[in-house]
Batch of 3 targets.
Target 1
Amino acid sequence: MRTDTGQVFRLEDYRPSDYLIPETDLTFRLSPDATQVTAVLTMERREGVAADVPLVLDGDGLGLAALKIDGKEAASGAYEATPDRLTVTGLPATGRFKLTIETVVAPSRNEALMGLYRSSGVYCTQCEAEGFRRITYFLDRPDVLSVYTVRIEADASEAPLLLSNGNPVERGQLEDGRHFAVWHDPFPKPSYLFALVAGDLGKVEDSFVTMSGRKVDLGIYVEHGKEKLAGFAMDSLKRSMKWDEEVFGREYDLDVFNIVAVSDFNMGAMENKGLNVFNDKYVLADRETATDADFANIEAIIAHEYFHNWTGNRITCRDWFQLCLKEGLTVYRDHEFSADQRSRAVKRIAEVRTLRAHQFPEDQGPLAHPVRPRRYREINNFYTATVYEKGSEVVRMIRTVLGAEAFRKGMDLYFERHDGQAATIEDFLKVFEDASGQDLSQFSLWYNQAGTPNVSVSSTYDAAARELVLEIEQSLPPTPSESRKRLMHIPLAFGLVGREGKDLSHGAVEGATVEDGIIHLRKRRHTVRFSGVSERPALSLNRGFSAPVTLSVEQKQADQIFLAGHDSDPFSRWQAFNTLLTDALIDAFRSVLGGKEPRFAPWLGETAGRIAADEALEPAYRALALALPGEADIAREIGKGIDPDAIFKAREALAHTLASANRHLFGDLYHGLGDNGDFSPDAASAGRRALRNGLLDYLALLPGGAKLASAHFHGATNMTDRAAALAVLAQRHAGSAEATEALAAFERAYSHDPLVMDKWFQIQAAVPGPQALETVRALCGHPGFSMTNPNRLRALIGSFSSANQTGFHRTDGKAYRFFTDIVLETEKRNPQLAARLATGLRSWRSLEPARQARARAALLSMAAAAQSADLKDIVERTLA
Ligand code: B3K
Ligand code: ZN
């Protein structure tokens, strides 16, 4: 494990490297315990750098076996090698030179899953962010671009398949049953995009003809026998390639594109040039094993990694502070892709829910950082919802501010101007300024300032003058190390909804720039006067979630209810009902705290019923509207003094109220949506399943609910319905005969399939209540569980800490202590994963005092025991 040095990296300290590596030739002689790596680096000194400036290469846990300069053994005084650095002096004074570096690494003992490691007998690599330095000494930074040629030698029976980046050049036999392959990637790339895979895998083949008529061979490699599960991923890949040509004019550039699925992977997938490596969870799917959510994730992640070929690989990042340059932009691109492939409205609601669930707590807690951070201790801890999801929202806002046409012009300019470069956010903003003539300097605060802005709005309407006045104010709460904030440019999309449900027109506007349905906020306060407004409108604000802000609008409840039924913007219509539900839940929470039974106004049930039965709305949309805000969502809206048990009671009470009020309607709809046995993963079919399963969740609360869910479970003809029913049984009818029997049946049916068993772990980890700790502890001993596989740990421990508010935050703090032990145990093998798990405690300060004290004690003990930069960084920032 790389122990913490406490070193902090700062954006303002960036300077270019003294040396360049135009060419990199690598030879791997693979063996599990001692792989020999020979790197021949063609190097040169950057212009203007003095000849006596030493070359300092990065390493991480390396040992140097040999070093040559221009083919000659380096004199012992000419270099110094430590595990994390190779310093070479006395290099040729002018011109290019070749450095030959030999290292030996042990993939079989690499449990951190960074660098070269083995997953189920397959050699694979993960180099982003700083894994390449675990393979050989290198200038392991994204602004050093090199053309790679890679030769792989391995035992032919153990590893018949030998893959690397770029195009295949040569292959052949060697002595002793070994063979080799050579790959060449003509596109200069940073080391983090290097990849190698070698093993015995099955292949799914296809091809794609690009817009200029070039044929690209596509391959997806999976465990033998799983080929039939890769069809959806292949189809998603081809659709992504086509879409990027049509929407962004981007064509693929190599002769081959390969994807490999591995079962031990720290994250979702990795965009290595021409050789994407995937967590198998995001490749393998069929109706029997994957839910609709899995299908949607596969489609999105296949697209995301493919889109990186242009946004990330052809144009990469100058330094890791610019991570959002590739990640935020690529998330934006994959969101747009999914919106085009599926339902735009449903997709947008799902995106906003994800942003609020993951990014808002980050922005509002101790780990808050700008979309482009200015400092880090461990870069792997900055692959965050802020960099990714808020980063995507910022790109979306650029499009909103510029309009579709200027945005596309700016993107074209970006590709033209920066192809082959390592760029910055300044470069990115500049192309949009140049394409549109607009000044984006105030807008750039979205990249540089942390925290979620609040926008508050009140209104008055003067019927005689036909004038509507909006008082709008932005405020920016302080975040760690940024106490004073500057005012932002917030594009607020709006509509003035009239009695007929149509948007009212208006005349001249004073007090803010208002264009194409957007109010541009740039000052702290705006008094915006709309003339020529024919009646008092209901205010529909932040339509389509045009800006990632929290919004409070002083508005009559009747107007909110009206918007929930009539807003022509589907996102805002969903939002209107969701806000009503949230407000009702917060009131109910306060009642529970005050020892009273929560009560709900009858119109809530009526509105829910109307939405459920509205045939004009897509089923997927109705399912989203009917889904109550989660316990964590409610906690976030309440903000502090959180008692998860009281939130749980409030939410249960509302669920019962809505179910009882609509028992017949929900029952009829549920039966009307009955499964006819056909299956297609398309969005419309998935939407009908989502609605049916959402209704089941309500109906399960009524008498006979367990029986109904049990029938649903046993009658299911796909994993979506089966897993949904299992969750309803396990979580709503915990301990019932039906639940126990269904859990056992599921385990019997899928014990051979780890990815499906993850759902079984996940569902049980989320069963509410204090007994969950014992369940989770016991499941840690289940033969299907493994402390070394990231998917298993995330399914059981990650779900327990993030999806089980009452169980994880039990009052005695025992779950926190258990969690601390697991995190520290994980840290020994895989510090990156441990750090990621530890973020499960980031919202500890919002808890009520007793739980807060126990969470703090757990964090303090984690801080005292942590060894790695990864975990120390997270825990210390969480406590600060
Ligand atoms: N770029 C990778 C993430 C790498 C994470 C390193 N800790 C996957 C992606 O965002 O596409
Ligand atoms: Zn990415």
Target 2
Amino acid sequence: LCPPGVLPLCRRPPAWDRATRPPPSPLQPPGLPLASCRSFSNNKIQVELDESSGVAMMKLKSPPVNSLSLEFLTEFSISLEKLENDRACRGVIITSAVPKIFSSGLDITEMCGKSMEHYAEFWRAVQEMWLRLYGSNMVTVAAVNGSSPAGGCLVALSCDYRIMAENPKFSIGLNEAQLGIVAPFWFKDTFVNVVGHRVAERSLQLGCLHPAPEAHKLGLVDELVPEEKLMEKAAAVMAQWLALPDHARQLTKTMMRKAVLDRLVAHREEDIKNFITFVSKESIQKSLRMYMEMLKKRKS
Ligand code: CO8
């Protein structure tokens, strides 16, 4: 069924049969109990799957800032895998349960003063999360209800569609350069695929964090809506995407994303080695420590 050179994104066999199911019912407004709703949660992530619509709501709930620690990344990947393998699930909306913050990106403490083994394990978990999310067969919608720097931005960029709360205090971008570190090639590829080369080049070099209205102008997010309308809008967008047959949409997604995914898969071990070499340099450790100190000072 696959055109030559196009492979399904995920290890799960494509669910052609799911396309024959009746069209999804619109999601119920947030706050109301969902009909035929299944939920599971762990320390960091809460998931509710509405079986009647085939849509899961994944809420990131790791206060204070949803930083992507090793534990968080592991639980994120496990949750995605569970949904991917669940025949009742066709789409997932990712949002935050922490007020004002979608995700603060990779947990910087995981990259400071740790062993080589730890860096390797951490980086493999970052890769795994991205491979699963960017390569998901499900429709993925990011409902960005707060600031979303660096790794947080990567999570949003890896989805099929991004809706952001229109609060100008919320910002999003790959700001690695501001920390004295460099976004890896697959962060960059994901970014370029969303905003184009010129915007990505400038934004990456300057480590820009774009306020929501600017992010919308650049195409970094697809839509801005008032915060109270965010979930309603995400549900409507999801219903629109799910109205199409799964197999056509999935093969198209594969066609668009495969080259970028394959590039990391082919260079995964090399990428881990590069990360370890880079992050364990004393100059990089110093930059990260200074950045953490700056965050703490800003607070006081
Ligand atoms: N990692 C670890 N701890 C963090 C992080 C983080 N990313 N972000 C915030 N924290 C901590 C703060 O230090 C603070 O700790 P404490 O309470 O002990 O003082 C606590 O979380 C709360 O932070 P704030 O007081 O700053 O909370 P605010 O609500 O005022 O602000 C923000 C929230 C906007 C998210 C702000 O914390 C911020 O800007 N954080 C930094 C975000 C950032 O720059 N992240 C980049 C991480 S790097 C990454 O994701 C990609 C790396 C790619 C690797 C490249 C190869 C080396």
Target 3
Amino acid sequence: MKYNEFEIISNFFNKHQKIDKNLIKGIGDDTALIKIPKKNVLAISTDTLVEGTHFFKNIHPKNLAYKTIAVNLSDLAAMGALPKWMTLSITMPKVDSEWLKCFSQSFFQILNQYKITLIGGDTNCGPLSITPSVYGLIKGSKTLLRKNAKEGDLIYVTGYLGESAAGFFLLQKKKYPINIKVRNYLIRKHLNPTPRVSEGIILRNFANSAIDISDGLISDLGHILEESQCGADIELNKLPISKNLINNFKKNNYFNWSLYFGEDYELCFTISKKNIKKLNSAIKNKLIQCKHIGYITSKKRGFNLMQNKKKINFKKIGFNHFDVNNF
Ligand code: ADP
Ligand code: MG
């Protein structure tokens, strides 16, 4: 069946979702209209995903739908915002109704899971590319900015690092010897990373700064340091590396992956000593899982990777940017 632009919108994107009391007008007019509750700040983020650059040509539409939402929610998580609304601009080379059906079904399933309403978008013809924008609310005025790290802050990372990279690696190396359950788990971590939304909302109450790890710890923590005009010492042996990686891969691989690959969509945050009790109580109540990896220092000291309290040279021990052909 052939669809025109309007039929694509009405068949695949204008779906009934739960009534949202702040939404005055959703899909179907020239703009969407939202009422922002009093004493809230609106957080807005957008990320384009282009075929060949951000995802493989043959990606399953289900996985693309997931990634489209997850990468945007992760940015909101890093600000401590609660995601509420989304717009979706989609450009497709042709109308493939099976593909659209699968994409939109998964898309709405995930949106509903996070109680997010799709409020508009744009539909065009061209090389496959997807631009979601997400809108979230932050109660009060306390936000989690990259620029607020302070000398003496402790640096933490949620979850584990490097598992997404391992999953990516396993997708290329079909014959790599590894337990099938672990293989599938790691691939899922690559295809379906969990944006740390609830963790971000908690951290907003006591962390000083945060960023989501999309490009790798070195690069993303580097942004906090640049914005905050600080340095940092991080300890290689304290990186949160799971048994899945330790038991199945070489040290060099998983350290490289943890430091440089990214796409784990975990949060890296800094917190002052005086707030550690609050963090520990959140950890105890299983509201957040995170690991201490180092300290914020002076800008003059710079960004250092340490092993047993001694500075180590990144390059000397063979760390370099991720390249699947190196393995
Ligand atoms: P206009 O020409 O005024 O920009 P469009 O014809 O592009 O309007 O879109 C009509 C309505 O459908 C608008 O409310 C728009 O936000 C919505 N829309 C268009 N494409 C999508 C999409 N892919 N997903 C969700 N809503 C969409
Ligand atoms: Mg339009």
